[in-house]
From TrEMBL, chain A:
ABC transporter domain boundaries: 6-305
Membrane topology annotation: Peripheral membrane protein
Protein name: Nickel import system ATP-binding protein NikD
GO molecular function: ABC-type nickel transporter activity; ATP binding; ATP hydrolysis activity
Positions of the UniProt region annotated as Disordered: 380-425
Keyword Transmembrane helix: no
UniProtKB/TrEMBL annotation, chain B:
Protein's UniProt name: Peptide/nickel transport system permease protein
Main location: membrane
Family (UniProt): Belongs to the binding-protein-dependent transport system permease family.
Cytoplasm in keyword set: no
Keyword vocabulary terms for this entry: Cell membrane, Membrane, Transmembrane, Transmembrane helix, Transport
């Protein structure tokens, strides 16, 4: 009965900056069922937002999706464009990365929409909230009035349209019907006095109200998938709860699928039934909520859960994860497990990049960590100071730790010296 | 209403600014050397005639009396009389003002029509050939001195090619329009256009370059803001995002610059008017200053100050209309 609506495979999004290539998303796999709430958790800089933006096609240069597949199940669309782009179609699924940008663009709002972290900066400050929501309604209204094949051409909005629109109300982009719908949407998300509110500017709203308005805007095209990028991070705790309740209600009412990006495990526990934990551009552990919260395998997941205050248990000290999020610059990343330098259970095996292993729990539980396969072996542990002083552990790959034994301890303690001191040998 | 209060406050400020300008120019006149009587009477040695003139002009009175007399006359709208033109300053300004306004407005139109589309192209095709061309062009425009440009245009376009007249104004715009609508006479308007083209280009080049750069950098800034991504996520056509959202917000600060610049141009573009022998306020101002014709100098300075203040209030009012956050503060 549950069908997969979105499947992301080996997604790679790179940013080509002056400092070098940044692997913001490095081979992410995801599978989201229709009507589910999928949570992606991770620290800042782990690639959560970039993953979300890759799915809705909001990656701007110097960023680029370099590899991967994003399969989206939408039988109508598959039938409509199947003849034009047979490569991109598999049954009733479409690979979003193999259809042209204009078609992808037409999916925004109607199939995918997104709400952002900071509502205040995500609205245009000089246009009323009602007008901005009405625009989102209008674009869908116009799109559905035209067959898909002619949509791109009918979407022209020129400098002349702008000048005429600012002079004559009849030439405005937004029609009165869309305005009315915008007011209905504001009412739907629980904004009091929606008629007056629609004529106000973003700075006249409170943060919580504006986040509601942004949700209303995202619902304008009745999307299949709503991507919520840290929807509550910028809000007060009490307002956070209200916004989450609202999302819950709307999901129940409209049957949306939600992809929730957050660093807040409390939000995940409350909202999601499936979870992916991201670290350094990869999903390191994924599965059902129970898999990740109770049967976790990856030490990073353990670390994340250990750094959340336990209000009921009390007593014990918080266990922060030592160290920092690693650099995602390609030439600094290396071939090992990216978490190894912060991992309390790092072993020699971790100097090879781990594949994804199935883990105990549900069928969906998968972990990118050797512990899922072999268990922790104290004898093979890396010494605590193994990564000390090595800003760029990428050099390790020449050491070949696999063919070494316990007796080569002294060599392993100075791996950087070995890669750089070629003269003496 | 907040907007009314805002306007009243700005008007009061404007009155003080104008009073300050009047006082300072008056003080400068008092400090400047030269006896106006010489200007009028020339080398007439007759002391009684000279005294008579001095008395007629009120120059025998103490300074403060002269100052308050002048202020009193200003309040009745009388700017005084020219020392050597034998005309009221009001008439002189009225005569030259139209020429200055024509040139200022024409230069502004040239600038806006060229600069804004150029800035938009430059910002949206960043680091592409069109952007490089526009950026280079605006660099050249901003660093070209306009007296040189004016002379070059006269030498090459007017004299060698012979397309436009070299100098002068030909016919006034209002006369040309009158002839057009009254008699259906198009040639006058074309003649007006041929006279104003080169001065307008000369005066507008720097301005065009400046606005191009401002539009480009403002739009690049604006394109990087989070609301642009959020607006794109709604699925709006890209051109709608660019024009209705981004360009509109980019233009808000540019309107301020446009207003200030127009205010400056109202005072007469001295150099351009000299080069093209354009009978505007700037040219009049320089001539009067050279002759020590202080009533005219004072009148023009006052007029420029008023024009500046009025344009600034208009710009602020427009700014408040475009940016809803301003009136609330």
């Amino acid at each position: 009965m549950t069908e997969e609506i979105l499947r992301v495979e080996e997604l790679k999004t790179r940013f080509f900056t002056d400092e070098g290539q940044v692997n913001a998303v490095d081979g992410v796999d995801l599978s989201i069922d229709r009507g589910d709430t999928y949570g992606i958790v991770g620290e800042s800089g782990s690639g959560k937002s970039v993953t979300a933006r890759s799915i809705i096609d909001l990656i701007e240069p110097p960023g680029e999706i370099t590899d991967g597949e994003i399969w989206y199940r939408e039988p109508d669309l598959a039938a409509a464009i199947g003849d034009d782009y047979p490569d991109a179609i598999d049954g009733d699924r479409i690979d979003l990365l193999r259809i042209p940008p204009s078609v992808r663009r037409s999916l925004r709002g109607s199939n995918f929409s997104m709400i952002f972290q900071d509502p205040q900066s995500s609205f245009n400050p000089t246009i009323t909230v009602g007008e901005q929501i009405a625009e989102a309604v209008e674009v869908q209204r116009r799109a559905s009035a035209n067959p898909r094949s002619t949509r791109a051409r009918s979407e022209q909005y020129t400098l002349t349209s702008m000048i005429l629109g600012s002079m004559f109300s009849s030439r405005r982009y937004v029609s009165p019907e869309s305005r009315e719908r915008a007011i209905e949407l504001l009412e739907l998300v629980g904004i009091p006095d929606p008629i007056e509110r629609a004529d106000q500017y973003p700075h006249e709203y409170s943060g919580g109200m504006l986040q509601r308005a942004m949700i209303a805007q995202a619902l304008a095209g009745e999307p299949d998938v709503l991507i919520a990028d840290e929807p509550t991070t910028a809000l007060d705790v009490t307002i956070q709860a209200q916004i989450l309740d609202l999302l819950d209600e709307l999901q129940a009412e409209m049957g949306m699928t939600i992809l929730l990006i957050t660093h807040n495990l409390g939000v995940v526990a409350r909202m999601c039934n499936r979870v992916g934990v991201m670290y350094a551009g990869e999903i390191v552990e994924r599965g059902t909520l129970e898999d990740v919260f109770d049967d976790y395998v990856h030490p990073y997941t353990a670390g994340l859960l250990g750094s959340v205050p336990d209000m009921e248990g009390g007593g014990g000290r918080l266990q922060p994860i030592s160290g920092n999020v690693p650099s995602l610059l390609d030439h600094e990343m290396g071939d090992r497990c990216h978490f190894a330098d912060r991992c309390p259970k790092a072993m020699e095996d971790c100097l090879n990049h781990p594949p994804e292993y199935p883990a105990s729990g549900s069928d969906h539980h998968a972990v990118r960590c050797v512990l899922a396969e072999t268990g922790y072996n104290d004898g093979r542990a890396l010494p605590d100071d193994y990564f000390d002083g090595t800003d760029r552990p990428a050099g390790d790959k020449h050491v070949g730790p696999d063919d070494r034994d316990e007796d080569s301890d002294d060599e392993r303690q100075h791996p950087p010296a070995e890669t750089t001191g070629g003269e003496h040998q | 209403m907040a907007f009314g209060k805002f306007l009243i406050r700005r008007l009061l400020q404007g009155v003080f600014v104008i009073w300050g300008v009047v006082t300072i120019t008056f003080a400068l006149r008092a400090l400047s050397p030269g006896d106006p009587v010489n200007l009028i009477a020339g080398q007439v040695p007759d002391q009684s005639t000279r005294d008579q003139i001095r008395q007629d002009l009120g120059l025998d009175q103490p300074m403060y009396v002269q100052y308050f007399d002048y202020l009193g006359n200003l309040l009745t709208g009388n700017l005084g009389y020219s020392y050597n033109q034998r005309r009221a300053v009001n008439d002189i300004i009225a005569q030259h003002f139209a020429a200055t306004v024509e040139l200022a407005v024409a230069a502004t139109i040239v600038a806006v029509v060229i600069a804004i589309p150029l800035g938009v192209v430059s910002a949206t095709r960043r680091d592409q050939p069109a952007d490089y061309a526009a950026t280079f062009g605006s660099l050249v425009g901003i660093s070209t001195p306009n007296f040189w440009l004016g002379i070059m245009l006269i030498l090459i376009v007017a004299m060698q090619v012979g397309v436009f007249p070299t100098s002068g104004r030909g016919i006034a715009f209002h006369e040309a329009m009158y002839n057009l609508f009254r008699y259906g006479y198009v040639l006058d308007l074309l003649s007006w256009l041929s006279y104003i083209t080169l001065p307008a280009i000369t005066l507008g080049t720097y301005f065009t370059a400046l606005i191009t750069r401002l539009t480009r950098s403002g739009m690049i800034d604006e394109l990087g803001k989070p609301y642009v991504t959020a607006t794109e996520a709604k699925g709006l056509p890209r051109t709608l995002v660019r024009y209705k959202h981004v360009l509109r917000n980019t233009l808000i600060p540019i309107i301020t610059v446009l207003g200030l610049q127009l205010g400056t141009l109202m005072g007469g573009a001295v150099i351009t008017e000299e080069v093209f022998n354009w009978p505007g306020l700037g040219q009049m101002f320089i001539t009067s200053l050279r002759n020590g014709d202080w009533p005219v100098v004072q009148g023009i300075v006052l007029f420029i100050a008023v024009a500046f203040v009025v344009i600034n209030i208009l710009v602020d009012a427009l700014y408040a209309r475009l940016n809803p956050q301003v009136t609330d503060e």
